[in-house]
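Could someone model pyridoxal-5'-phosphate with this protein?
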Amino acid sequence: MKYISTRGDRTLRGFSDILLEGLAPDGGLYLPTHYPQVDAAQLSRWRGLAYAELAFEILSLFIDDIPPADLKRLCDATYTEAVFGTREITPLKPLEDGLVLEALSNGPTLAFKDMAMQLLGNLFEYELARRGEQLNILGATSGDTGSAAEYAMRGKQGVRVFMLSPHGRMSPFQQAQMFSLQDANIHNIAIQGVFDDCQDIVKAVSNDLDFKRRYRIGTVNSINWARLLAQVVYYFAGYFQATKSNEELVSFAVPSGNFGNICAGHVARCMGLPIRRLVLATNENDVLDEFFRTGHYRVRGTAETWETSSPSMDISKASNFERFVFDLVQRDGARTQALFGEAIALRGGFSVSPDEQARIASFGFVSGKSTHADRLATIRATWQASGVLIDTHTADGLKVAREHREPGVPMLVLETALPAKFAATIEEALGFAPEVPEALRGIESLPRRCEVMKADVGAVKRHIERHCTA
Ligand SMILES: *Cc1c(COP(=O)(O)O)cnc(C)c1O
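Reply:
Sure, complex below.
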């Protein structure tokens, strides 16, 4: 399998070549040249496999430059009951009326990002050892991504993590999760500023090509193809648990921000997994809901990006969305370049043509939006009807899932975080605080490793230099 860019560069690259990369050189995102097709016989062979085995089978269709025995070992080491809490790894929890939660958030940081990031940590360590190289991951986080990356990379050979976060602005639980890590290769930097200041520093450092090369700076953001690929697996795993035969269809509802999670569902559907609908749910930051309803994509500015009680979906543009649009315009790289490389830069957005808009339905997408009041009501109703406590992001997914339910088609709602991470809103909805899982109880009182710094690019660079030569 080879990979190409969404913006017209058709140079063929192997999986290992793009594993450690961010954007393609032409500014596009990487996608496989085609989606491998899975027929009913193949689905039948996969039904009943353990999660790690299923992961190996699916990844093997997209990765041909890692020896199978090595890839198998990496999958086995990643998807274990010890790390993800259950033998199923992503167990289903039935709610009422044909609605089912698929639990993706029982990994080390209690959010679905662990599903992909844990594999990425093992893939990075493997590939860097094979090349005899090192990588310094520089990132900015306002919560889930940073902690998922740190828990995946902690103690890994050849990798250091420098993670910037806005000083004093993450939830106390999120701060404790990151800052209590004592591993020597993890460096927390709290920047005196807001999230955008952190992101600007990451951009400035990455734009200094000489520095970037000298210190081997890389990223782990959600446009990384390996992260997306790892997420394809749990659509298959959810389907096999929810059905008895390959004639049955299911729908998935996905709380969405940067379009990474649901894009993996799009890939699974294109491979032939019998998915009827992909239900995209946004919060008040409804860039994507607007697109799927109107065919008009308008990037928001900072002043129009709301801070909500489902903060991991607070986005102004959806960084993975370009992958879907590339498929929507029938893989026309010049057209994708005109939309993402030009129209967004010049006009802040674009509208797809009527023909293209008509094609959206053939990809199974529908959408909806959810507000703070909807989250509170959904958390309350679910607790009362089923005795299941859900987090704020999952509540957005469930609210929109109800609007698109169809008789006879199970609707799997992806649970993207545990309620313990967003205790304040749970208290507001129910009047009591959610339980914190055993392994994380008391982390607020552990010793912390974190450097507080001014929002200054030079200071951050010197910090990286010091720790790379040491
Ligand atoms: C990151 C995240 C999302 C959004 O996922 P995307 O892949 O960006 O669409 C939703 N919920 C939670 C809890 C998250 O951490």
